[in-house]
Write a structure and sequence with these properties.
By secondary structure, this protein is of the alpha/beta class. The protein contains eight helices and eleven strands. α3 links the parallel β8 and β9.
Length: about 300
């Protein structure tokens, strides 16, 4: 279940408008479910999913809390799997219900989940595109986007979500990123034999611009977001790629930011509500303001060289 909300910041609290619940069709129904958290009979609506590249389970926990029921959680790293199994055995919420598979995703047969799983999610290894890595991109053996695309092709889910570092959007990777997006749009249009990826991309681009439909199409959108804009006290940029099967007729847009820097400045220097909420006496506010302005000045100089 995807929960699409509008939110605003009031007195440091995130105030959510009534949730607009978007429920994926029940497995095997072939139709669009109604916008309700519960199915007829009062049973909790669950969407079965496969979680790839799970790591220690961070993204898997988030998607589980959003309503996904992971049929299987796949990770190859031994230490991460030890963490997952420990939390599973300790009865940690959500994790206790997961089937944890330790192994190479490249050898996993996703076809066994076709017809029983509605969603695929995961974070393919970021090292090939990370600013802190060697920037080898498609040539890095750890590039697992081809396996993520294979999972979509073999499972044929109703939707998917993948996340990666914002380095994926760098100019040097732009053409390959476009290739990833087009493959996710048309996952059954695969390379022919030893076809170069650039030639495969050209075929996908022609298909896309012609508006042609294949036997499996997805409407795909992506966005780079910063966790701090959603109330997390940390700057953490990530690119999210979301795809919805085209025949479902479901609309989707990324949630609006709930926390804004401009709103903070207004509360600090225009209304003054910020200081009142935190109990800072007026006699100390000028000192804080001077420090704040000096910090911002230095940050601006650093950004502009």
């Amino acid at each position: 279940m995807w929960r699409v909300r509008e939110a605003r910041l009031v007195n440091d609290q995130v105030v959510l408008a009534p949730a607009n619940l978007l429920t994926l069709p029940p497995e095997g129904s072939g139709g669009i479910a109604t916008a309700s958290r519960k199915r007829p009979g009062g049973k909790e609506s669950t969407v079965k999913s496969v979680e790839l590249f799970a790591g220690a389970g961070g993204l898997a926990l988030g998607t589980a809390a959003a309503g996904l029921k992971h049929k299987v959680v796949i990770e190859w790293d031994e230490n991460c799997c030890c963490t997952l199994r420990r939390n599973h055995d300790d009865g940690v919420k959500y994790v206790r219900d997961w089937q944890i598979v330790e192994g190479d995703v490249g050898t996993y047969d996703f076809r066994q989940h076709h017809g029983e799983v509605s969603f695929v999610s995961g974070g393919p290894p970021c090292q090939p595109f990370s600013i802190g890595g060697k920037h080898r991109g498609k040539d890095d053996g750890r590039n697992m986007f081809p396996e993520a695309i294979r999972a979509v092709r073999e499972i044929r889910p109703l939707g998917f979500m993948f996340e990666n570092v914002r380095g994926l959007l760098r100019e040097s990777f732009s053409k390959y990123f476009g290739y990833i997006i087009h493959q996710l749009r048309y996952p059954t249009v695969t390379p022919k034999g030893d076809e170069e990826w650039t030639h495969h991309l050209a075929r996908l681009e022609r298909l896309h611009t012609a508006g042609e439909q294949t036997n499996l199409n997805y409407n795909v959108v992506f966005q780079c977001v910063n966790a701090v804009d959603y109330g997390v006290p940390q700057h953490r940029w990530r690119v999210f790629i979301v795809g919805i099967r085209a025949d479902l007729g479901i609309e989707y847009s990324f949630p609006r930011a709930t926390h804004e820097y401009d709103a903070l400045l207004h509360d600090m220097w225009v209304s003054g509500d910020y200081w009142d909420r935190h109990g800072i006496p007026k006699k100390h506010r000028l000192t804080v303001k001077v420090r704040f302005v000096e910090r911002e000045r230095k940050a601006l100089l650093e950004r502009n060289g």
